[in-house]
Amino acid sequence: MALIVKKFGGSSVGSVEKIMAVAKRIIDEKKAGDKVVMVVSAMGDTTDDLIALAKGINKDPYQYSREMDMLLTTGEQVSISLLTMAFKTLGHKAVSLTGPLAGMKTNSVHTKGKLVDIKPTRVHEELDKGNIVVVAGFQGCDELGDPVTLGRGGSDTSAVALAGALKADSCEIFTDVDGVYSADPRIVKDARKMKEITYYEMLEMARLGAGVMQPRSVEMGKYFNIPIHVRSTFTTKTGTMIREEYTMEEKDFVIRGVAHDEKVAKIAVLGVPNNPGIAYSIFSALAEASVDVDMIVQSIRNIEKNVTDMVFTVASSDLSQAKKIVDRVADQLQAIAVLVEEDVAKVSIVGAGMLGNPGIAARMFGALSKAAVNIEVISTSEISISCLIKGAQLKEAVNAIHAEFFPQK
Question: Which of 104, 186, 308, 312 could form a Cys-Cys staple with 140, CB 3.0–4.6 A?
Fold first, then answer.
């Protein structure tokens, strides 16, 4: 007898046939006495289709962020209704709950919300009635009751957070791949599936572009100390366990994986005064608009004139908003220019094993050099190294780095 939270992504419920297949699988796997909570994403490309509809009204619909959340939350409601109908058609009790009905409370940052509290009272009540509870992922509501979405991949966060709040025995993330790989298997054909990975390493992988998990969901897993099993919807094979520490031989790997992110843009603010408070004036304005910034580099442009250049990256989805903010601040600072480059990508290596192992960065840079890939910006953390490169060279870069650290046997 166990309480299990299972999350299914959009590709897993992308059609009526797939929804029926998921329902049958859950029923077949459910043991007597088990309590099951499903967290479901919108069907297939529904979210993209809804965004396209909004862009048909206004090319920059995210300026109306509340209305975008009102629109986007409808996608998951379709999924949970159909899946609940599937369970009932197969003769099992089930009920659908939106994020707010399931007790998911968020801040008021529309389209990029964060969970601030979870009170799953209704979920417990429905489980006690013998229902399979189907919850809409990716969404909650703020203190006014307005819908707030949790950003791309937010259903992962919904599932792990709900598992933690329910004190579930396990949390399973079902997706279209059968685990976490050493690189995107769509780009690197000999990428290796990991049996396990730590929260810390998975968080870095996700933050740096590994799309299999949303970073916030991994944070939730660590916070609640809930092991997360990432596995395939379409097979019954064991996937990858995300947990606090290793229990198997995988601890011997120095580098755990190669991550990449194509959805980035570079902004350069040229010729700003090299004085205290200049960086704050730029980045505080971006922070107030909830624009995340990464890979920040400051370099002296002219020592005699005491001016500097500020270079950083933002998510492509934030570029339009970030550019408006930076242009305004740059005018106030009398900067020479603000330049934007969109044809860029970030490639990174991640691994706790690089601590105390000199030469890891040199090997990464050497692999890129041999592949004739130029590095524009470099940033590091304790367990990761990231390079900004031309977007057109991403595939070559990822394969070159992977071959360096994961040679074929």
Answer: 104
Distance between CA atoms of 6 and 37, rounded to whole angstroms? 6
The token pair that represents 118 in the structure block: 């979870």
Give the list of residues 6+ apart from residue 362 with CB closer than 8 angstroms, or none: none
Dihedral of alpha carbons 221, 224, 229, 233, sign: negative
Contact 38, 4 (CB under 8 A): no
Question: Tens digits of per-residue pLDDT, 101-140?
Answer: 999 999 999 999 999 999 999 999 999 999 999 999 999 9
Nearest by Cα to 196 from 261, 237, 250: 250
Helix (H) or strand (E) holding 270: strand 257-273
Residue 333: what residue type?
L
Edge-first strand listing for the sheet containing 257-273: 293-302, 307-315, 257-273, 337-350, 384-390, 377-381
List the 147-149 sheet strands across, edge first: 115-118, 104-106, 139-141, 147-149
Burial class of residue 30 (count of CB atoms within 10 Å of its CB; 0-12, 13-18, 19+): middle
pLDDT per position as a tens digit, 226-259: 999 999 998 889 999 998 886 655 555 688 999 9
